Amino acid sequence: MDRLDSPARLMIVSDLDHTMVDHHDPENLSILRFNALWESNYRHDSLLVFSTGRSLTLYKELRKEKPMLTPDITIMSVGTEISYGKTMVPDDGWVDVLNQKWDRDVVIEESSKFSELKPQSETEQRPHKISFYVEKEKAQEVTKVLAERLEKRGLDVKIIYSGGIDLDVLPQGAGKGQALAYLLKKFKSAGKQPTNTLVCGDSGNDAELFSIPEVHGVMVSNAQEELLQWYAQNAKGNPKILHATERCAAGIIQAIGHFGLGPSISPRDVTDFTDSPLENVNPGHEIVKFYLFYERWRRGEVDNSEAYYSSLKSVCHPLGVFIHPSGQEFSLHECIDNMRQCYGDHQGTKHRIWIDRLLPTRISNDAWLVRFDKWELSGEDLQCCVVTTLLRSKSPDSLTDLLWEHVHQTWLDDYAPKDRTTWLL
């Protein structure tokens, strides 16, 4: 919560499965479009929150499968766990809130009396969440009777049914909406309440998010029946809630534009960067734009022309230095020469590059130190390096003519490529 010194310009709170992540998009283009938009326009002054029904175990599995960004805050297990940053520091205050009128053993005892309830895997059973599978036609009656029995035992619980099969028993104070309300209260007490908050979801366990009064909301086009029914009964006609016409992350981008929350054109949708007006200019634009061009160059999707080659060299300082993850030192112009020789070497392959955790620090009136993770997928080989870059403007206080002066890369643990000689930049 302390990464930003002032209120976030935008805080996005998004469900993962079938909202941020489209499991029917084998190329992951939707989430890659969002990634490029976020890192180039929002990361430096905004907050990204993932709010998921997944446990920590399943959340980590998804991160290995999909090109997900690192969130600033993670809400897991249907709003029963809140953690911060890449190291996922837990919020102990939230645990204290959830312990009120909650007894896990009693919930297990009472729920075991229902043959209709099939326990989910052990990874999904958490200190403040007990999860089952139940057939759709039996869910309503089971929910009603179980709630009555737990109330008689002195517990105050919340039962959430979502996805047409998942039933979660939580403390009454838990849930995605309550977790968000708790976070907003913390931000407000610190004098850092986000200027705008956008919540994003597709299923029943996301409905609470849309009930927070001060937020904008987007139901992606592929939203499930239970969320659409909730909307029809509780929020139809609410101008702050949009039912997008786009799926998953593309629907989130659509909502940013619809509500006027900031730039909504992803750099991945720009075909000619030289003719692209920029909003909210910051060094992130330069980083994302460069590596998108690098990806397209190696996929053979841009012209192999002298003009493009010259433009690449023009953004590198004549004396610029590149420290390869192996420790070898090259001139940046030498790296561009090597890159020219690799034009189209990934044409027709599953080759994608995305940037994560891009954080710029101004160190003088004409220089920025920028740190980020650069991910590169080549076929099934996923590689990543941690990058520190010095960018210097041609004139003081300008952000439109930045030169790459120094680039230093180190391998991220467990993500060095098998053939390290193929790593160019």
TrEMBL record:
Belongs to the sucrose phosphatase family. This is Sucrose-phosphatase. Its cofactor is Mg(2+). Catalyzes the final step of sucrose synthesis. It catalyses: sucrose 6(F)-phosphate + H2O = sucrose + phosphate. PANTHER family: SUCROSE-PHOSPHATASE 2-RELATED. Its EC number is 3.1.3.24. Residues 283-412 form the Sucrose-phosphatase C-terminal domain. The lineage of its organism: Eukaryota, Viridiplantae, Streptophyta, Embryophyta, Tracheophyta. One of its GO terms (biological process) is sucrose biosynthetic process.
